[in-house]
Design brief:
The complex is a heterodimer of chains A (about 150) and B (about 725).
Chain A lengths: L1 E4 L2 E4 L8 H8 L18 E4 L2 E4 L12 E3 L1 H7 L1 H12 L9 H14 L5 H8 L9 H15 L1
Parallel strand pairs in A: 1-5
Antiparallel strand pairs in A: 1-2, 3-4, 3-5
Chain B lengths: L1 E3 L3 H7 L6 H15 L9 H5 L4 E4 L2 E3 L5 E5 L8 H13 L6 E5 L22 H28 L7 E3 L2 E4 L4 E4 H8 L8 E3 L18 H4 L16 E6 L7 E6 L1 H4 L4 E7 L2 E6 L2 H9 L2 E5 L8 H11 L5 E6 L2 H6 L3 E9 L11 E7 L2 E6 L4 H12 L6 E5 L15 H13 L5 E4 L2 H6 L7 E9 L5 E10 L18 H4 L10 E7 L16 H19 L3 H7 L5 H14 L9 E10 L2 E11 L5 E11 L6 H21 L4 E2 L2 E2 L18 E5 L17 H13 L15
Parallel strand pairs in B: 4-5, 10-20, 18-19, 22-23, 26-29
Antiparallel strand pairs in B: 1-9, 2-3, 3-4, 6-7, 7-8, 10-13, 11-14, 12-13, 15-23, 16-21, 17-18, 17-20, 21-22, 24-25, 25-26, 27-28
The chains are: A alpha+beta (about 150), B alpha+beta (about 725).
């Protein structure tokens, strides 16, 4: 399969039905994107495909051929929105166990891309697909608002 | 000043286990060479060690580049222990926070034992409590050696050398040096026999709220490495098939379909399952799904959780083993003007950490190496050695960050760790094998918070005084049948009843326990353990008794805890900050609960709004916590907020149920955990205290469910007797 991940063209020897998550983790070797549920329930595997957030655990790799896939590693390098969010994440010490946070950041990046000044309700409804068992939700809300302010 | 005049022997026992002087490094280098941690924010130990650095004891390494690495004996699973223990060392060392690093300790189970357990492991919210003096002593010893080195180099009196913000200086002569510059020379200095710890008034890091967690950046960039992320040369991934019922056995396996899947390398059978080994997760999972397995379920009962609860309720009609007794409760209830009764039902709960269980195991001729979010080295290491018939010294464990645990990764049977080892052994391969449970295996894998039933009777006299309290508790023991069964020396599992009826001063009290014989559902501690149910039953029932007397629930509690000043302190603080007593509009309610767990005192006040259709929101939670010295306030705020969220999640929607012997839930679509829209704002107030610090990972959990249930009563006049609350108020 021919993929573009974080602007890097890659040719991976995988079956077309393999979920994008496992192509990213086990074949492209990028482990920032996490496995949490395998059925698009938790959001830990969130990446961007052509700028839109998708759950990579249920996205067949064949469906993203010819598209731009961005993972947390790529967003950390290239997205000013992600970088502003990461500054806010560290400022508020958001992560506890940290396992869900790549997915949270990719969803939050998508939120601020489409809605630069979200309300609490906007944040809650956009982020509802990302579970955090440590319940860092309150700090995530605050960090998204801080990043939005910094970017404005 | 706090003088620590320990005897040399005691000092070495608690702090400097590595030896003395330069020989210190020998013991440490041995440990690191054998057991170098591969991850954590710091550098891998074995590589750093070769560069001639200062390792005054088993807990500290100071490198020529001026970084100070603290070797953390506890698992970082979110609770902040890497930051907490490093704060203690940095405080006494006089370091600058920016030079501090942390990394997981090797499984040298004697050197790195939990002083509260006598064995290496993390749990019971003990990390800070058991390390508070040990880590400060370790830091103070290193500071003294650095000062001696500086004094020798500069030819000055050691007593005139000062340390601040990571700089050694001699004001009179104008000398100054970094720790890194003095590291090599310091390594040759004798280890001090006594160290003087700082007076708390002089703390510059402990109790301050401006420290960035050491793991914040790695965890905000996808760079933190968990077990799931381990990639090793020639590593295979194992996806497993578990029996449909607990305790069932494999009868026969047709693995021809699995072996035909591209990427599948091997299929192995082991005592409790079948594993498919492949080059990547997806191939292994496809192979696992293609297995045709006949399970022998003839020896496993068709368990049903509703029937089990009915059985528990009938058991609660009979007297149980008395775990606490005072006065004559039967007489008190018989003579009471009013007797109130209530029964409370609690379901099985899954830990459901975000990182599904996993473990990497490699068996070679040299022994066994493990990569794991390792929580229980003191149990896992000897268990692995016993299964493989090797010496524990041949078992090397690399401890990684855990993507949550909530107790699950500290299994008294070493269950999932041994499963990975058994798969590696059954494969006959010498390459590393990463066992990965899918979410479904994780959810259905048992080791749940046990199901419980509590039956309470309270007797009130004609003046509304609480004269009798009988609490019958029914549920499985966590430690029975495990290597930790000696905890049942008193004839019962103390974790089944811990906290019941406390701290209320009632003249006639009886706490009784029924422990059903093992019947196949594996159970385990779940963040705050027994307090998850005893706190709910106690705090909801006391609230019900208060209302029966027509008295304010806070007033009623205060009158019954006169000899419990720390309970009173948090109760009063939470009530005050929440505006207790202010009137709320119709449809809204406010409830309170106070629970001491793991020596930390927490009171929580919840405000709720109930709509006409019975649905409700939790609008605000106020927390007051007394955990002794507040080492890292920001971590305490985070753990209280997270504890409220974790407890509220269970109260709102979590339950594991069994039908025909099978677990009915499988993933997050039917095991309902809390999401962002349900998370209330949580406001945390810390009681100023000079007591030794106690833990904060668990104690935020127990009070929230009863506080919410009591608030729902205040809003609707209806009591909650069954968790989860779900849509009970809609009926």
């Amino acid at each position: 399969m021919k993929l573009t991940i974080n602007n890097q063209p890659l040719e991976l020897d995988v079956e077309p039905d393999m979920p994008l998550l496992w192509a990213i983790r086990d074949h492209a070797g990028l482990t920032g994107t996490k496995f949490g549920c395998g059925m698009a329930q938790c959001g830990a595997c969130t990446v961007h495909v052509d700028g839109q957030p998708v759950r990579s655990c249920i996205t067949p790799v064949a469906s993203v051929e010819g598209k731009q896939v961005t993972t947390i590693e790529g967003a950390t390098e290239a997205s000013t929105i992600t970088q502003a969010l990461q500054e806010a994440w560290v400022h508020y010490n958001v992560p506890q166990c940290g396992y869900c946070q790549s997915g949270q950041l990719m969803s939050a990046t998508a939120l601020l891309s489409s809605n630069p000044a979200p309300s609490d309700t906007d944040i809650d409804s956009f982020m509802a697909g990302n579970i955090c068992r440590c319940a860092t939700y309150q700090r995530i809300r605050a960090a998204i608002k801080r990043a939005a302010t910094q970017l404005a | 000043m706090t003088e620590q005049s320990n005897s040399r022997r005691h000092f070495f026992k608690t702090s400097l286990l590595a030896g003395a002087g330069l020989t210190l490094g020998v013991r440490l280098s041995q440990a690191l060479a054998d057991d170098a941690p591969v991850a954590g924010p710091g550098e891998a130990g074995s590589t750093a060690l070769k560069q001639g650095l200062f390792a005054p004891n088993a807990f500290i390494r100071i490198a020529p580049d001026n970084t100070v690495t603290v070797i953390i004996k506890h698992l970082e699973m979110g609770q902040g222990t890497y930051t907490g223990l490093t704060t203690l060392v940095a405080e006494e060392l006089g370091a600058d926070w920016s030079q501090m690093r942390a990394e997981g300790a090797p499984a040298d189970t004697e050197t790195y034992k939990n002083l509260a357990f006598g064995s290496m492991g993390t749990g019971g919210s003990t990390s800070m409590a058991n390390s508070y003096l040990q880590m400060r002593q370790a830091g103070a010893a290193a500071r003294e050696m650095l000062k001696r080195a500086a004094a020798r180099q500069w030819g000055v009196d050691e007593r005139k050398v000062t340390v601040s913000n990571g700089v050694l200086s001699h004001a009179g002569a104008g000398f100054s040096a970094s720790f890194g510059e003095m590291a090599e020379l310091a390594a040759g200095m004798p280890v001090p026999e006594n160290v003087t710890l700082k007076n708390p008034e002089d703390f510059v890091l402990i109790g301050k709220n401006n420290l960035t967690r050491l793991d914040s950046e790695a965890k905000s960039t996808g760079k933190a490495i968990y077990t799931q992320d381990i990639q090793l040369p020639d590593m295979l991934v194992a996806v497993v098939a578990h029996p449909p019922r607990f305790g069932a056995a494999v009868q026969s396996v047709d693995d021809s379909g699995a072996r035909a899947i591209r990427g599948v390398v091997n299929v192995v059978q082991y005592p409790n399952g079948v594993a498919v080994l492949a080059n990547d997760f997806w191939s292994a999972k496809k192979g696992r799904d293609a297995l045709e397995i006949s399970w022998d379920t003839s020896k496993t009962p068709p368990l049903d959780s509703e029937a089990l609860m009915a059985r528990y309720k009938s058991l609660a009609r009979l007297p149980g083993v008395k775990t606490t007794s005072a006065g004559d409760v039967d007489a008190a209830l018989k003579g009471a003007a009013q007797v109130i009764s209530a029964g409370y039902e609690f379901p099985y709960l899954a830990h459901a950490a975000m990182e599904p269980l996993n473990c990497v195991a490699q068996i070679t001729d040299a022994g066994c190496e493990i990569w794991n979010g390792e929580q229980f080295q003191g149990i896992d290491k000897p268990s692995i050695a016993a299964v493989l018939g090797i010496d524990p010294a041949q078992v090397k464990i690399n401890t990684l960050f855990a993507g949550g645990s909530f107790g699950r990764r500290a299994n008294p049977h070493a269950d999932y760790v041994l499963e990975a080892v058994q798969i590696a052994r059954a494969s006959g391969l010498q390459q590393p094998i990463k066992m990965v449970w899918t979410r479904e295996e994780d959810m259905r894998g048992g080791h749940y918070r046990p199901m419980f039933y509590h039956q309470l009777e309270g007797g009130l006299d004609e003046h509304g005084n609480l004269t009798g309290w009988r609490q019958r508790v029914v549920g499985q023991s966590i430690v029975q049948g495990t290597p930790m069964e000696p905890m049942m020396a008193g004839g019962f599992d103390p974790m089944s009843v811990e906290g019941s009826g406390e701290p209320y001063e009632i003249p006639n009290r009886s706490i009784e326990l029924h422990t059903p014989a093992a019947f196949g559902v594996p159970v385990q501690w779940w963040r705050s353990v027994g307090h998850t149910h005893t706190g709910f039953a106690t705090e909801c029932f006391i609230d019900e008794l208060a209302h029966a007397t027509g008295r304010d629930p806070v007033e009623f509690r205060r009158a019954l805890m006169k000899d419990s000043p720390r309970h009173l302190g948090v109760l009063n603080l939470a009530a005050e900050k929440a505006g207790w007593g202010n009137r709320l509009p119709a449809g809204r309610g406010r409830g309170i609960a106070v629970v001491k767990s793991f020596n930390t005192y927490v009171a929580e006040v919840a405000d709720v709004t109930v709509k006409a259709d019975g649905s409700f929101t939790v609008d605000r939670v106020v927390v007051a916590v007394d955990c002794g010295v507040a080492v890292n306030p920001d971590v305490i705020y985070a753990q209280m907020g997270g504890g409220v969220g974790f407890g509220l999640s269970a109260a709102l929607g979590e339950k594991i149920t069994l039908k025909e012997g099978q677990v009915e839930q499988s993933n997050f679509h039917d095991y309902l955990v809390m999401r962002m829209p349900q998370m209330p704002p949580v406001e945390v107030h810390i009681v100023h205290s000079g007591e030794n610090p106690s833990g904060v990972g668990e104690p935020g959990v127990p009070p929230i469910a009863p506080a919410v249930a009591n608030a729902l009563f205040a809003a609707t006049g209806r009591r909650i007797y069954q968790l989860p609350i779900a849509n009970q108020l809609a009926a």
